[in-house]
Structures are given as C-alpha cells and as structure tokens.
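Next up, sample data.

:::
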Amino acid sequence: MNNTTASYGYTLPVFACASAIAALFRLQKRKINEKVYLDLVEPSEIVTISINQIAKIQQNQSLAITISNPGDNLDLTRNTPIWVIVELKKYKDNQEQVTIQGGEGVGKQVHNNFKDAIYSYAEKLLRYNLQFYLTSTEKIIVTIILPEGKKLSRQTSNEAFGIIKGLSLLGTSGISRPLSTASQLQNCQEELQKKSRKTDTLVFCLGENGLSLAKSMGINSHNLIKTANWIGPLLIMAGIEKVTSIILFGYHGKLIKLAGGIFNTHHHLADGRLEVLITHGVKVGLPSKNLQTLFKCQTAEDALAFLRSLDEETKSQWSAKIYQSIAETIDKKAQSYIHKYVSFNVAVGSILFKRNRSIVVFSKTGKSLFNKLIKI
C-alpha cells in the first residue's frame, strides 16, 4: 500500500476565527503581523494562520480576510476567501460579549428556522479565542462573509440536507481531514480488514450522514465503515478479504452515481445523476413529457420531488418504480465491479435515503441484509 502521509489543513471555522482575531486587533490598535495565533480547541493546539488583507472600514468596524487551505484534500473551498467584519461596542451587563452571525455566502438552515449555518464547533472556536482578547467593557459583533459561498454551494449536496444560499461552517474539529486522499483510502482499507475478521457483513456508509442514520436504525458499529468517496477500491478490498455481503448505505444523490458505473463519488470527478434517473425513467416507461421535465431538474433532490408530485397528481408509482430500478442496478454494477478484479462472490445490497433522512428505497438484497443485521 502507499504509505505517503497526507498533509492536513484546517476547516473553514479556523480561517473565519483567524480573520476575526485580525479584525479585532485592528480596532484595538494592537500590533498586527502577517499571521495570527489561535487555539483550535478541538484538538487543543495552537496554530498560526496567515492573514491576507485587513482594513478599518468605519470608526468601530474593520474587515480581515484569510484564504482557505484544507490541505491535501479535493475540497472545493480551497483558496476560498473568508471575510470577517468585526464591530466593536461597549459591553453592558447581561449582554453577550461575542455575537456571531452569517453574512453573504453563509448558508441558511431550512429545517432550523433559516438560522445561519454556523454550527457548534465554529461558535465555540470563535468565542473561546475572541473572548481572550476582550476587556470587561468591550463586546463585538462578528459577521462572517463567504463571497464565493453561493456559487460554490451549487457544487455541493448542501441543499439536499437543508442548507440553502451558501456554505456551512461545519465540522467538529479544526483539522481538515483529507477524506479524498490516498492516505485516507488506506485508513479505510485497514479498517475494512480489521472489521472483516469480526463480521461477514459490512455496511459502507457514504459520509457522516449515512453513518449517523445507519446507527440510529439499529445497525451495530462493528458492521459500519465510513467510506467517504472511495467506493470502488473498498469493494475490491471486500472481495479480497472474502466479505460475504455488503450494504451500500447513502444519500440517493450520491449513491445513484454507482448505477452509472461511477465508483468514486467525489463531485470533482464525475456526476451523471440526472442521466441515470432519465435512463431508468425510460426503462420503466415514464412518458416522454415527464422525461423532459426530469431532464430540466437541477438536482437529484429536485428530480425525486418532481416524481413524487407526479405520483400524487396521477395516482401512479413512478418514483418507486424508477428508484427500485436504480437500486437493483447499483447492486448489479457493484457486484460486477468486484468480479472484474476478484473471483469471490459478494452479495451487495443498497439503501438510499433522502435529505430528511427518510429511506427512499431498499434494494431487494439490501432489505434482506438489513433485516438480518437488526434481527427482524
């Protein structure tokens, strides 16, 4: 195996925090170099972040800019500018000393009253570092701006999970884990080898949402592997390790790619989702005018919503027919992919879920394997 160590970078909240510190320093007339120091909190580690630009824009406001560096990772936020405006005010009793809000390019949470998509780690990081520099008479309003956020969000699955109009400041750590690098693949392969010695059924969870949902549905952790985008190599490894059965468990907008023969699901490499949907629409006999509408959908989630609305209007079951066809094709394509490289029969089933974490479809094999795992 390749033992090259991937270089780690930092998550967006870290760069936002660095920008905020620099902007606050400008208002407090502290000496500002080209870098600032901050504590990542998770993990507890002091790091140095470069400041790209800084300027005072009003008497009590300043702006600082950093540039995202996620390390050796196929991350679309690489080189993204993170702007932070800090407004300095007088502190009064019973007020928050640090108020954090999203500006242009920071997403909104559809399922949480359209609150800014600034999550707990980002808030904790900013408060912890900024409060250290505030006097007892100062308070600040921190506005995070991602100028390219709206544009970049169109290349993500954010809308599928209820984040609109921009990117989210997500993460549980300041370290950007290189999920799409060769070293991460090696880690997944090693985890697969270890778990295959304890169970004959593995569940490949595409990302954190798949892992979380699989656990909540009662699947034991010793069966679960978080795969990121490395589906193909892990299927081959499963065959080599003589794993007898695999469940592919993921968001339908990701997992659907396998029905098109795409076994690395990273958005930088290939898409083909709508093409797969249209192909299976033709296969099950969806009328031409509906195929045309399907072709115009912007996302897989839009396509599923259209099919379900069509079902309601026409009292039909087009969505079920199309997605069942896709799920069965995913199973067959995955098995064929393994057989190309390994002469060992692996039963493959699939489970697809939608953005609200409800199940869209089980393949026949997926349902059977799932029932055995949770002992129905």
